[in-house]
Amino acid sequence: MKGPLFYSKILLFGEYGIIKDSRGLSIPYNFFKGALKKSDHLEGKALESNKNLNQFAVYLQEVQTESPDLVSFDLDSLKKDIREGMFFDSSIPQGYGVGSSGALVAAIYDRYGKDKITVLENLTREKLLRLKAIFGKMESFFHGKSSGLDPLNSYLSLPILINSQDNIESTSIPTQNPDGKGAVFLLDSGTVGETAPMVQIFMEQMKHEGFRKVLKDQFIRYTDACVEDFISGNVKSLFGNIKKLSNVVLNHFSPMIPKEFHQLWKQGIESNSYYLKLCGSGGGGYILGFTEDLDQAREALKGHRLEVVYNF
């Protein structure tokens, strides 16, 4: 048995903001992927994955009991496959903000979901919201609370435009320019980030009126502008807004930025050779970078590994 491949995702814009109804844009990232497989001899990561799937199956039974109108699964087949050595074979790094649990959730729903919404049907807004709700419930097993966007992106393998919590749509983004000098890239922080503690910090900060004002007047405003610029291909305006967004994150979201990257972050803004932003919840994992000149950014970030995600 080898299941279809499910890809990682990158939330280009909208981290934290989408909790408070900013816009967001999430794209599939085919460099990392995962699939359900079986083996007679489980060891190492495969054995660990199999044990996790066992716990996940117990959780899905609870979800089905609590929300029978939302989703139901072929639990007998799922449990049988787990007993027979099923695991999720994935190259998606965990705790890096690129959707490792999202791909697994999408794979399980795809194989074991009953009366499932398929990617081939006409995906109305209602269907997208229903899928998002199902995936949010499923992925909560891994994060305590989930928006459901990561699995949705992985399941559909399409860019998702988030207009607000209850207004999402699949969208198209401008075709990449393989010869372009500009790029979106991933920068490896070298440490794993945990989602739950970062979200906890954010929620604590939200208790302060000053932070809420910054979030509304600056963070969400620049995020929305970046989404609009990216989708419409307005690169000049995009970089102006990303610089402002990067600055707001450095000044007000510093606990989410690994300490050793504060200086690099500042350096990018001051030199204009690149701008950094959070990839997912932060705290480690990948950091997203935007540059109008990739060679210049590589030079400025010597000693760090850059993975190009998109070329302008």
TrEMBL record:
Q: Which SUPFAM superfamilies match?
A: GHMP Kinase, C-terminal domain, Ribosomal protein S5 domain 2-like
Q: Name one GO molecular function term.
A: kinase activity
Which organism does this sequence originate in?
A: Robiginitalea aurantiaca
Is Transferase one of the keywords?
yes
- Protein name, as recorded: Mevalonate kinase
Gene3D superfamilies per UniProt: 3.30.230.10, GHMP kinase, C-terminal domain (3.30.70.890)
Which keywords does this chain's UniProt record carry? Kinase, Transferase
